[in-house]
């Protein structure tokens, strides 16, 4: 079956809405917690939830841990640090979509895949869209934040290539468990090394910040990611993955409604270019879509 049933389509829309809201929640969280500390808390809670799913895979652990560190701890450390430095959540949401063209390029470099002119056009459009948004940034901190988000997308794409090399031996929920268990110690070390004020943040955080943390763990990681992988198990990837481009659309809209983000012509133009490019790539190579939010 290639067409989603109405119930499953509604569930996929809910998943995208959760992912779209996840950046809003993360923005609230990193405004009160140091970003790497916030991510360390998230991964620690997620580890506690997913610990029973861990399995040792002899001969595959190096690739598995590489994938987990890149697509887990490192990706989110860069993403949430960039989110804290960037004023508009919508810009971050759009920049995260560069994970799709990055994954395609990494597949060419490391897996020997070939890309034809349509996917090349999609890659150019995706990067052009983010460049249009970056031109708008009128202070260095915004550009620095976007640069960290782009670096996050690159780390995630390299990790996804490592996941592809693992094949189907690792179940999605187990993969998430390894992401959390391997990422938590890395994030704690990075936070202790690079950040300060963690104890004060815990003492002063309001219920919104704690709610944001729980949302990233329960709604985004456990419900949305698990639900997405469940849909992938029932339908062709080509029927599911192009619709994941709705998540940045939701992030942009929610950023405007809830955080007062400005919806400028450059964000609209850059977002349109990036999402069109991502859709082109996803339709030609659906497996390149990464939903690591």
Please give a structural write-up:
The protein has one domain (about 30-210, about 260-290). The longest helix has 28 residues, at about 205-235. Helix content is about 80%, strand content about 0%. Helix 4 runs antiparallel to helix 12 (about 245-260). The chain is built from 13 helices and no strands. The protein is globular, with a radius of gyration of 18 Å. By secondary structure, the protein is mainly α. The relative contact order is 0.23. The model has no long low-confidence stretch (mean pLDDT about 80).
Give a concise summary:
The chain is an all-alpha fold and 293 residues long. The chain contains 13 helices and no strands. The protein is globular.
């Amino acid at each position: 079956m290639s067409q989603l049933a109405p119930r499953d389509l509604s569930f996929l829309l809910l998943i995208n809405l959760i992912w779209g809201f996840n950046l809003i929640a993360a923005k609230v969280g990193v405004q009160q917690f140091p970003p790497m500390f916030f991510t360390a808390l998230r991964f620690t809670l997620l580890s506690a939830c997913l610990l029973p799913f861990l399995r040792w895979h002899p001969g595959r652990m190096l690739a598995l841990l590489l994938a987990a560190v890149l697509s887990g701890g490192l990706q989110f450390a860069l993403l949430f640090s960039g989110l804290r430095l960037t004023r508009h959540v919508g810009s971050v949401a759009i920049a995260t979509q560069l994970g799709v063209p990055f994954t395609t390029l990494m597949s060419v470099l490391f897996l020997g895949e070939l890309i034809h002119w349509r996917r090349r056009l999609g890659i150019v459009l995706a990067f052009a869209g983010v460049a249009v948004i970056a031109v708008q940034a009128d202070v260095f901190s915004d550009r620095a934040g976007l640069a960290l988000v782009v670096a996050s997308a690159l780390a995630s794409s390299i990790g996804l290539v490592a996941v592809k090399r693992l094949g189907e031996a690792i179940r999605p929920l187990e993969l998430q468990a390894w992401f959390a268990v391997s990422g938590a110690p890395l994030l704690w070390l990075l936070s202790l090394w690079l950040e300060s004020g963690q104890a004060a943040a815990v003492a002063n955080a309001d219920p919104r910040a704690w709610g944001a943390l729980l949302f990233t763990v329960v709604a985004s990681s456990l419900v949305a990611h698990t639900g997405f992988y469940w849909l992938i198990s029932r339908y062709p990837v080509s029927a599911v993955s192009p619709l994941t481009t709705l998540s940045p659309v939701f992030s942009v809209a929610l950023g405007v409604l809830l955080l007062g983000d400005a919806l400028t012509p450059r964000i609209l133009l850059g977002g349109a270019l990036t999402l069109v490019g991502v859709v082109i790539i996803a339709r030609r190579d659906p497996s390149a879509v990464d939903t690591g939010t």
